[in-house]
Amino acid sequence: IVLSMYQARELSEDEAPMLHRMVAELSANAGIPKPRVCVIPEDAPNAFATGRDPEHGVVAVTDGIMRILSPEELRGVIAHEIGHIANRDILIQTIAGVLASVIVSIANFMQFAAIFGGSSNDEEGGTNPIAAFLLAILAPIAASIIQMAISRSREYLADETGARICGQPLALAGALHKLGVASGQIPMQNGNPTTAEMFIVAPLFGGGMAKLFSTHPDINDRIARLREMA
Predict the structure, then answer these.
(1) pTM score, two decimals?
(2) Which of the following is catalytic: 42, 81, 155, 197?
(3) What does the chain look like in DSSP terms, one character per residue?
């Protein structure tokens, strides 16, 4: 679904031999099967990985990222995405999203139960409508905060795993610096902000609205950690 949302197209080895060599080498270093390689027709420089497990992994890069990064920096980005696949982050984030949806659904159910079925005067079994209303407001916020915290922690882990896989923490740090600058200037024309957590850096979408919750750690902190690894 996400690949079709971004109009991703699978690349053959003849079309992108260097990219395929990178993916093959880095996935071997990570001890996982070679993921499929896709390109997204977007000028915004970015990349993401998807797949429920390493056997169904996909690494997708935009046209823009291949234009602005050096081969060493691109290799660092690919290693980061393979790190996500090796760490099964797609599955973990999917579970976190499902749990967040369950929390929101329960809060909504309690709100409707308080409005239509509860009674604040029933001391034995009644539901306080004010408490249920507050829960309906606060539960989605709490669920989002938890989901974003999980997403940020997995980004740190993917940086660490990717740096170890490629053996060049500074190359990944340099890529993050370039991507942090460019992705804040060039919006993605397709896709949806709900998929922002999948990308290596938080993308700017066409609407340009500021995000209330960050799906990614501060990019300068990520760069500093990689420099410490080096």
Answers:
(1) 0.80
(2) 81
(3) -HHHHTT-EEPPTTT-HHHHHHHHHHHHHHTSPPPEEEEE--SS--EEEE-SSGGG-EEEEEHHHHHHS-HHHHHHHHHHHHHHHHTTHHHHHHHHHHHHHHHHHHHHHHHHIIIII--TT-TTT---HHHHHHHHHHHHHHHHHHHHHHHHHHHHHHHHHHHHHHS-HHHHHHHHHHHHHHHTTS-BSSS-GGGGGGBSSPPPBTT-PPPSS-SS--HHHHHHHHHHH-
